[in-house]
Amino acid sequence: MTQDYDFLNFDSLDFDGDDESPADPQEYEPEHRLNGGAALAVVDSDKAVSDYLAGLFAGAVDTASSLSELESRLGLSSQVVILGPSCTEPADLAVVEQWGRTRPNVATILVTSELSTHLLHKALRAGVKDVLSAPIDQSMLIETVERVAESLPGAEQMVRGGETHEAAPLADGEQGRVISIFSTKGGSGKSVTATNLGVVLARRSQKPVVLLDGHMQFGDVAVMLKLQPQHTAMDAIDQLDNMDPSMMERFLTVHEPSGLYVLPAPMEPTFADQISGPQVARLIEAIRGFAGHVLVDLPAIFNEVVLSVIEDSDEIVLVAGLDIPNIKNVKIGLSTLEMLNVPKERLHLVLNRADSKVKLNVSEVERTLGIVAAAHVPSDVVVPISVNKGSPVVISAPKSGVARAFEELAVRFLDGAVAESNPSSGRRKFFG
Ligand SMILES: Nc1ncnc2c1ncn2[C@@H]1O[C@H](COP(=O)(O)OP(=O)(O)OP(=O)(O)O)[C@@H](O)[C@H]1O
Ligand SMILES: [Mg+2]
Prior knowledge:
CATH architecture of the largest domain: 3-Layer(aba) Sandwich
Helix content: 25-40%
Oligomer: single chain
Shape: elongated
Distance between the termini: 60 Å
CATH topology of the largest domain: Rossmann fold
Number of helices: 17
Bound molecules: adenosine-5'-triphosphate, magnesium ion
Radius of gyration: 24 Å
Number of strands: 15
C-alpha cells in the first residue's frame, strides 16, 4: 500500500490523467470501511485532487466537490471526511463547526499543501480533528484516518497495542500526575528511561499517558519511538491562548504499539531559545487536564525551563549512570534540588548500567548519596539495539533485565501506588 512518492507536494504532482490514480474505482469496488465501520469521503473542488486522495485507499470512497454536496448524502452512520486543500475558506470551516454541533457521527481531517499557524488554529478551532501538511506519505494519511475513525462514537473502546482498554478521559477539573525525568549528566539514560516508562504506563493505565520531550534543543524521543510527528511542542505553545483539553489531543502523536501520546521537541534546535519556563508550565497545565500521567524528558542542565518543570512535577525520576563522574554530579544535583525546596519524597533514583561488571558497589553508592535507588537498570546491548530500532526495550526485548527494571519502576507511578512505594514512608532516607 505505502508509496514513497512526494505525496501532497501539490505543485509537482500532475493530477490530470495520472497513471498512479486508479481509474474511477467506484464502478466496481466495494465501499471502503474504516476500523469500527466508519465510511470515508473526500471533498475538494478539484475533482482530480479528490479522486487522487480517494485512490490512496483500498475500496470505493465517496467524493464530493463541496461540503454542501456531501452534506446532502450524510446519514447517521460514522463518517470520516478528508477535506482537500480547497476547503480552507471561512465558509467551509463554518460548515465543519456546525457539523461539530449537529453531527457527532462525522469527523474531519484537513489535508493542505501549505500549513500556516493561522490556518492550523482556524481549522482546529472549527473542530477539524487533525491537519496534515506536505510532505506526508500515504501510510501517514491512512493511519490518521483510522485513528480519527476510532474516536468516533460507536467506537466505545480504544485499541492499544492489540489490547483493548476502556477509554477513560479525566473527569472535569481532574489533573494528571507530572513525572519529570532528569539527570545531572548528559547521556545517562533519561530518554531511554522516559520512553520505556511511558510505554509501560500507557499500556497499564486506563487514562491517557503523554510523554513531552522537554529537551527542547536536541530532543530525541520521537526518534527513539520511531514517530513522524505532525506537530511539536512549539505548535502547541503557539496555540496556548486558545487551548482546552479537547484541543490538546490534536497536537499529540500516538505511538501505536502502546497508545502512548507524544509531544515531541521542536525540529529546529534554534526554536528552543523562544520557549520560556512559564510557557512550558502552561503547556504542562493544559496536558494534565487531558492525561492521567504527563512524563517530561528533560536535558541535563538547570535552566529556566527545567526549573519550571521540576517545580511543577509531582515526581522526579533522577537517572544516574554508575560511574564516579555521574555519582559526583548526582550528589551536587541532590544538593541543588534540596536548596530549591524540592520535597525529597518526590525523588526516585534510577541507577542505570547498574551491574557487577562496572565495579562500583550499588549499596555503597546509595549510602554515599543518602538515597536508595528505585530501580537498578543493568547495562545491556538490547538498549542501543532498541534505540536504533526505534522500539523501546519493554517492547523489543520484554524478557530482558532492563525491561523488567522499567516495568517494576512503572508500578510505583500507577494510580494509588506511589504513597505505598515512596521512600518518604520513613523506611528510606533520601538526603544524607
Ligand atoms: N542500560 C543501558 N545499557 C546499555 N546502553 C545504554 C543503557 N542506557 C542507555 N544506554 C545508551 O546510552 C545512550 C544515551 O542514552 P539516552 O539518550 O537515554 O541518554 P540521555 O540522558 O537522554 O542523554 P541526553 O542528556 O543527551 O538527553 C543511548 O543511546 C543508549 O544506547
Ligand atoms: Mg535525552
